[in-house]
Design a protein that fits this description.
Shape: elongated
Number of helices: 13
Number of strands: 3
Largest sheet: 3 strands, antiparallel
Structural class: mainly alpha
Length: about 260
């Protein structure tokens, strides 16, 4: 069985090499550099990823088949496909780097590959996760009008995708003040890349709950405070107070909202 798998892998490698031989030199160079980017991203070598991505973006400017020119070339499909792949990896890199500005720039460059030329390419398995990720970003940034504008651009089938539905349900819960549902959703993210934005949303929700609790009570027991904030342990509560609410004080088993 292992020998069979090795032979199959050799065949796949040989097929990839034959495909590269058909490419023009510029496309081959981009493909090789993109493989290095993917490997660096797998290793979480973010600095090297950033350097490789910068080189790739410069090289992509030589492909006139890409937006906004859309000129035909003998390698149009291959050029569009690898450019889409590169920008998808750029979006993932921005999440790993926790860089929201880079996310917005890279998503803006990627979006035409979904909206303007999607029919010319095979579907990307990353499309719905990334579209849902962008919706989650807009929700975190409280850009609700843009959130709904993006929803209106999606197809009926896209709206049924678990990644998109996750963002829609979060927005509904947030708007209804059902903060417990928002906090619970952190444990059921539909894609691994969602953790960063979900953590930011959880922080926003906890800040909102904390503000309401401070207005409603002078103090609460530690257990009641943990239940209110949906915090699992005394240690996590103490960390939250130290980092987010330094004006609070834990004393004699109680949480006082004013020192």
């Amino acid at each position: 069985m292992k020998e069979k798998k090795r032979n199959q892998e050799k065949i796949r490698v040989a097929e990839r090499e034959r495909e590269r031989e058909k490419m023009d030199p510029k496309l081959t160079e981009v493909s090789q550099l993109f493989e290095r980017l993917k490997a660096s991203l797998m290793r979480n070598d973010l600095d090297n990823c950033s350097n490789l991505l910068s080189q790739l973006k410069i090289m992509l400017t030589g492909f006139r088949s890409l937006p906004p020119l859309f000129e035909d070339s003998p390698n149009t499909v291959q050029e569009l496909t690898i450019a889409r792949n590169i920008y998808e990896h750029a979006v993932v890199l921005s999440v790993k780097a926790e860089d929201q500005d880079a996310f917005e720039r890279d998503f803006f460059q990627l979006k035409p590959y979904y909206t303007d030329i999607g029919a010319r390419l095979p579907p990307s398995p990353q499309e719905h996760p990334i579209l849902g990720l962008n919706l989650l970003r807009l929700l975190v940034q409280n850009r609700i009008a843009e959130f709904h504008t993006e929803l209106e651009l999606l197809s009926t089938s896209a709206l049924e995708n678990p990644c998109i539905k996750h963002a829609i349900e979060l927005e509904q819960s947030f708007m209804e003040g059902a903060y417990n549902r928002v906090l619970s959703a952190r444990q059921t993210v539909p894609h691994e890349t969602y953790a960063y934005f979900m953590d930011l949303l959880v922080k926003t929700v906890r800040d909102e709950i904390a503000g309401c609790g401070k207005k409603a009570y002078d103090y609460l027991s530690i257990n009641d405070a943990k239940q209110m904030l949906m915090i699992s342990s005394d240690q996590v509560l103490s960390k939250f107070i130290t980092e987010e609410r330094p004006e609070w004080e834990i004393k004699n088993g109680l949480v006082f909202f004013q020192k």
